[in-house]
Design goal:
This protein is α/β, with parallel strands linked by helices and 253 residues long. Helix content is 39%, strand content 18%. Strand 1, helix 1 and strand 2 form a beta-alpha-beta unit. Pfam families: LamB_YcsF (PF03746).
C-alpha cells in the first residue's frame, strides 16, 4: 500500500492580520510547518499554533523563511550560505522554545518560499541549511523539494529527508516549481490538483509545463492553508487519497 504525509504551512498570521483557517485545516493534515517570525508569524501566533497542532495530534515542524514580512518570504535575497545557516538555526531555536513549554518534540524543518526554492538549486546554500538542521538536532527530518539539492544535501550529511511534492503547483521539466511570477504557476482546478498528487505518489512522475514526464519521489505532499478554498481542498485531497488506497500518516510515530 502506498503511504504519504500531508503537510501544510501554518502560523502565518501576524499581529491583528489573520491568515487561514487553522482549526479546520488541522483536521486533514499530518504535519504542520509553523512560521517562525521572519516571513510571517509572531510569538503569540507561534504559541497558539503549536498548541492547536498538539490538540489535533499533528506533528510539528519549523518553517524558516527569509526576513521579508512585506514580501511574505517569496522574494529572493542575495544571502550567503553562512547567513542562511544562521537564519535557520535562529528560527528553529525560536520554535523549539515553544515546543519545550508543551514538552513536545520537533518532527521536521521545511524552509519557506524563496529560501526553499533557492536551496533547491543552490548546492552551497542547501548544504548550509542541512548543516544548520543537523547541528541543532540530527534527528530532525529535513523537508525539501523532491530530487533537489536540498534533499541531496540532507542525505549526504546523514539527515532523514522527506521529498516533498506540491498539490497546487505546476512543474518545469527540470523538476523545479514554476515561478509564482508566471500566470501558470498555480493549479486552481481541484480535480487536476488531486489527480497530479495521485499520479506522483503511485507512478512516481509528474507532467511538466513542457508536457514531459519528470521522475519524482513523493514522501510528503504540501497543501497551502492560505488559499480561497483551502479547507475544501484539504478535505477533498485527503478523501481522494484514501479512496485511492493511499495511506495518510506522519513520517514518525
Amino acid at each position: 500500500m502506498f503511504k504519504v504525509d500531508i503537510n501544510c504551512d501554518l502560523g502565518e498570521s501576524f499581529g491583528r492580520y489573520q491568515l487561514g483557517e487553522q482549526k479546520e485545516i488541522l483536521k486533514y493534515v499530518t504535519s504542520a510547518n509553523i512560521a517562525c517570525g521572519f516571513h510571517a508569524g509572531d510569538p503569540s501566533v507561534m504559541r497558539e499554533t503549536v498548541k492547536l497542532a498538539i490538540d489535533y495530534g499533528v506533528k510539528i515542524g519549523a518553517h524558516p523563511g527569509l526576513p521579508d514580512l512585506n514580501g511574505f518570504g517569496r522574494r529572493e535575497m542575495n544571502i550567503s550560505p553562512q547567513e542562511g545557516y544562521d537564519m535557520v538555526v535562529y528560527q528553529i531555536g525560536a520554535l523549539q522554545a515553544f515546543l519545550a513549554t508543551f514538552d513536545e518534540k520537533m518532527q521536521h524543518v521545511k524552509p519557506h518560499g524563496a529560501l526553499f526554492n533557492m536551496a533547491a538549486k543552490n548546492k552551497e546554500l542547501a548544504e548550509a541549511i542541512a548543516q544548520a538542521v543537523y547541528d541543532v538536532d540530527p534527528s530532525i527530518i529535513l523537508f525539501g523539494l523532491a530530487n533537489s539539492e536540498l534533499t541531496a544535501a540532507g542525505e549526504r550529511i546523514g539527515l532523514q529527508t522527506a521529498h516533498e511534492v506540491f498539490a497546487d503547483r505546476t512543474y518545469q521539466e527540470d523538476g523545479t516549481l514554476t515561478s509564482r511570477q508566471h500566470a501558470d504557476a498555480l493549479i486552481t482546478d481541484t480535480y487536476q490538483s488531486v489527480a497530479q498528487v495521485v499520479k506522483m505518489i503511485k507512478e512516481g512522475v509528474v507532467i511538466s509545463q513542457q508536457n514531459t514526464e519528470v521522475s519524482i519521489k513523493a514522501d510528503t505532499v504540501c497543501i497551502h492553508g492560505d488559499g480561497e478554498h483551502a479547507v475544501t481542498f484539504a478535505k477533498q485531497i485527503k478523501e481522494t487519497l484514501e479512496r485511492s488506497n493511499i495511506a495518510i500518516s506522519s513520517l514518525v510515530d
